């Protein structure tokens, strides 16, 4: 039987839209073979980087300890760097074997299972291992992440020896958790996002999952083998133990990333900065205009009202009246416009941190030049940009690739942050950070749309992140179009009458990417319209209410 992996399940699910929507986390999509990753520094003929050979990362740990979350997060980071990585969830192979509505034997998850259950497990396991070897040996794969419980020490040794015979390193990542609050949060997250529990009543899903956990506990053996390569993460990164992990550069890079990772849930919000008194100058670093100040107040009030509605929703579903959301931290760049956009919230007592790496793309020689002048003086550069808007840079300017490399410390801080997070930044910065969290391809990033009248919320889950948008009401229409610093570039005369939305193409917002015609405006067209336009503008789902979209 053909294996139905998470990518296939996602492709066939009505709750998923494909690559043409910022609604979708593409972490389980298989990357396009020839495309460079957003932060990839170089490519090789073999497709493997850092002279590090092939590695299998095998998870170890009881259910609801964060193994899948860690697997997905690692794959997200490694793919961002350009390392060819694929996740092999053993649960996907089980679901594929028994079918979407099939039941496994009652003792399937028990260590001392019946002979028929053991044979079924071995058959499923064999198929998963075969696919791992096929990926590493025949698809130029470099890192295979084997997401399974792997509860026994003897099994870990056997797994390491099996891969060693084929010249593949094995790095075990064990998730240990003794904090009941974290376990409860993980159970709730798995209940929501796991393919095992689609269509289940929440109470039944929790009971079934806890039953699986209890079946494993008596037989589980933590990793103590000094000869193996392993990282042990305790209580969501509270303590990390690395044993014998310095076998190559990439293994050390993985350990460094895991030191910054935690599995506690949090919300991340993206918003644009307000408009300024000098919209055309990058160097002036102007203060907010009166309209920009009004925008900052309305944005903050909308966000706080949304968070309060989220809190009330938790209470309505059984949480105590004293329930509080996680504290909200605000990040801005050091540019005046983003700092001043955060001042209203800072006055209400919220913590604001300025990050110099979050400054927008530098426009170089294109600053304050008219559209006509740019095409007249730099026709060759315009042509190059149209061919590759992600990697091309104008003279003395930055490319999106430059920005992605510059933002790597921010990405690690993002993984480390435990509070809810509001990021106020230029659209170019939001595109790159959003591209990381939602596993967007490099060519897609320059055309991601962030209208100023919307707050984008990233909702984390174990298998994938989800995005929704929150409308900021009452803004004048002229504030909604694209970044004020963007230098808009002309399109052919036949298209001039149909330019719309927040995305005039430019050196800073995606020059040369197709403009959507005939749809309402960027960020509000339907997924089907995005498909017809070739998927260049990754559109958010259509609004369904005055304040926000329902979660998927």
From TrEMBL:
GO MF annotations in UniProt: 6-phosphofructo-2-kinase activity; ATP binding; fructose-2,6-bisphosphate 2-phosphatase activity
- Pfam families according to UniProt: 6PF2K, His_Phos_1
**Ranges where the 6-phosphofructo-2-kinase domain occurs:** 45-264
An example GO biological process term is: fructose 2,6-bisphosphate metabolic process
Q: Indicate whether Nucleotide-binding appears among the record's keywords.
A: yes
Matches recorded under InterPro entries: 6Pfruct_kin (IPR003094), 6Phosfructo_kin (IPR013079), His_Pase_superF_clade-1 (IPR013078), His_PPase_superfam (IPR029033), P-loop_NTPase (IPR027417)
Annotated Gene3D superfamilies: P-loop containing nucleotide triphosphate hydrolases, Phosphoglycerate mutase-like
For the keyword Cell membrane, the answer is no
Q: What is this protein called?
A: 6-phosphofructo-2-kinase domain-containing protein
